[in-house]
Amino acid sequence: MNRMHMQRVIMNIKLKNVFPSIDRFQDLEGKLPDEEAQTLLQNLKENRLPSALPSQNIFKYTVGWREGGLHMENNEHAQYIDSLVTDFKDKWMDLIDDCLEKR
User: Fold this and answer.
1) 0.90 exceeded by the pTM?
2) How many CA atoms lie within 13 A of 87 on its CB side?
3) CA end-to-end span of the chain, whole Å?
4) Average pLDDT, stretch 73-97?
5) Segment (H or E) for 58
6) How are the residues of the chain apportioned to helix, strand and coil, as percentages rounded to the nearest 5?
7) Contacts of 31 (CB under 8 A, 6+ apart)
8) What residue segments make up the domains of the chain, in order of their start?
């Protein structure tokens, strides 16, 4: 299967304080989060993707927020970026190799 899913969870972030225009990028009903959209998104992440993709093609990363975004001098942030880049490169190389072998 030539698909993968990479998801990140950013902990301790107050989006409204960081991005004042965040409302333009959220599913809202009036000024409140759209509960149906949140439920559908949760179902996608927890049920539909895992049933559609092999577990080795699903990557989840959790990283803590720090004022100003990612800081490579922060060990947690450096490890997150290193893992994300390594996983992405390695998985795509595997997917490409698999496709070539099938030809």
Assistant:
1) no
2) 17
3) 14
4) 95
5) strand 58-64
6) 55, 15, 25
7) 23
8) 5-102
